[in-house]
């Protein structure tokens, strides 16, 4: 095959949240796009699962993310309206914690520096307004009025459909065994055939090191659990916002009743990394769920503390919990989006746009310098 006649302008490897959004944005920009997914479209072996995910603009991870989050929210609303599907549900997002801890300082900086609509709830106001929570002494609430809930599986499907409508060729159940960048483009090897493209975007999440071995990312489980409330009416989206809290070393997050029967909650930073993404265990024994049941028992007393079900997903984590977004060092034809460390889904539309700009125009208007994939090699 002549290298002057590539099969596509850009290939997208991995069609989960980041990949489906990237394929959509590339195709919408007029690029010839091919996409590869080793599983079926909308699967449960990556990070985009669990029926609902939090959206928050007042960010525990730092105020520097707010411009990305604002644009992502606009894109979520646009995609919701254009598709007619309930991808984004505005509920607000309630952050709870003592005002002097770093996550709450970052939330306060987010609303102050960027003028986000919010409410500050003193301890007595927090208890009166949201009695479903059991705050510890001195904890306050910051209600981010731009927050809400997202539907991850439906969002991935919608973005993939939009990409196809714009002309993208998306191939599921197609395993990519090698990605070989060179000065003229990128060769992609699958069981079916070899493909040639000008550039490729790798968005394979926890699997990224199989195609980009130098990516400083480790796979880690994300465990989500659902609990039965004593009164469902107290946990509906109009009275119980999405929430995230840090109390005495416990990082608990959750969302209102979205399925009619249960409240979702989860804890972070208690699950060991995986040696290989294929080692993911999907069915956990009851003792393994004790960290989240203990947190729910203490902090959400209106829920029965034994989960009615759980789901295990995974994401790729970096050492500094900051994503890799940009060209692979030494291979500018290859762009990577990975290592979102459990907090990237909410920003998937804007990162799809960023990846498209990087692939087509060699740059983006967003400040993503801190996400440079080369930072770990420089540190080494």
Give a written overview of the molecule:
- Its EC number is 1.5.3.2.
- Residues 9-358 form the FAD dependent oxidoreductase domain.
- It holds the Pfam family DAO.
- It is an enzyme of class 1 (oxidoreductase).
- InterPro entries: FAD-dep_OxRdtase, FAD/NAD-bd_sf, MTOX.
- Strands 1, 2, 9, 10, 11, 12, 18 and 19 form an eight-stranded mixed β-sheet that branches. An eight-stranded mixed β-sheet has the order 6-7-5-14-15-16-13-17, with helices on both faces. Strands 3-8-4 form a three-stranded antiparallel β-sheet, with helices on one face.
- The longest helix has 18 residues, at 66-83.
- Helix 1 runs parallel beside helix 5 (152-165), helix 1 crosses helix 7 (348-361) and helix 2 crosses helix 7.
- It folds into two domains: 8-47 and 153-217 and 320-379, FAD/NAD(P)-binding domain; 75-149 and 218-315, D-Amino Acid Oxidase, subunit A, domain 2 (D-Amino Acid Oxidase, Chain A, domain 2, 2-Layer Sandwich).
- It is 24% helix and 28% strand.
- A hairpin with a 2-residue loop joins strand 14 and strand 15 (250-255).
- It is an alpha+beta fold and 380 residues long.
């Amino acid at each position: 095959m002549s290298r002057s006649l590539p099969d596509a302008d850009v290939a997208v490897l991995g069609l989960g949240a980041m990949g489906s959004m990237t394929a959509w944005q590339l195709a919408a920009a007029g690029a010839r796009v091919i996409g590869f997914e080793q599983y079926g479209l909308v699967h449960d072996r990556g990070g985009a699962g669990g029926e609902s995910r939090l959206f928050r603009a007042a960010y525990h991870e730092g105020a520097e993310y707010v411009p990305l989050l604002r644009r992502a929210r606009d894109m979520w609303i646009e995609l919701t309206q254009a598709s007619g599907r309930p991808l984004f549900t505005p509920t607000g997002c309630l952050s709870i914690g003592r005002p002097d801890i770093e996550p709450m300082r970052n939330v306060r900086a987010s609303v102050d520096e960027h003028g986000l609509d919010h409410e500050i709830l003193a301890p007595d106001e927090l208890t009166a307004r949201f009695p479903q929570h059991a705050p510890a002494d001195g904890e306050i609430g910051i209600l981010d009025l731009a927050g809400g809930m997202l539907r991850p599986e439906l969002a991935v499907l919608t973005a993939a459909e939009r990409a196809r409508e714009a002309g993208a060729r998306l191939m599921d159940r197609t395993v990519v065994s090698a990605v070989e960048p060179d000065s003229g483009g990128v060769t992609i090897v699958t069981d079916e055939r070899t493909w040639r493209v000008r550039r490729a975007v790798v968005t394979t999440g926890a699997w990224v090191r199989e195609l980009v071995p130098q990516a400083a990312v480790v796979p880690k489980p994300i465990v989500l659990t659902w609990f039965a409330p004593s009164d469902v009416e107290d946990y509906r989206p109009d009275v119980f916002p999405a929430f995230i809290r840090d109390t005495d070393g416990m990082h608990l997050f959750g969302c209102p009743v979205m399925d009619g029967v249960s409240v979702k909650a989860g804890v972070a930073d208690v699950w060991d990394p995986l040696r290989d993404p294929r080692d993911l265990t999907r069915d956990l024994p009851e003792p393994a769920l004790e960290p989240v049941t203990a947190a729910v028992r203490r902090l959400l007393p209106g829920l029965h503390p034994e989960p009615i079900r759980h789901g295990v997903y995974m994401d790729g984590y970096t050492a500094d919990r900051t994503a890799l977004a940009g060209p692979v060092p030494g291979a500018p034809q290859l762009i990577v989006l990975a290592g979102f460390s459990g907090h990237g889904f909410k920003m998937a539309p804007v990162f799809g746009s960023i990846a498209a700009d990087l692939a087509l125009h060699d740059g983006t208007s967003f400040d993503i310098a801190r996400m440079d994939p080369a930072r770990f090699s420089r540190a080494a």
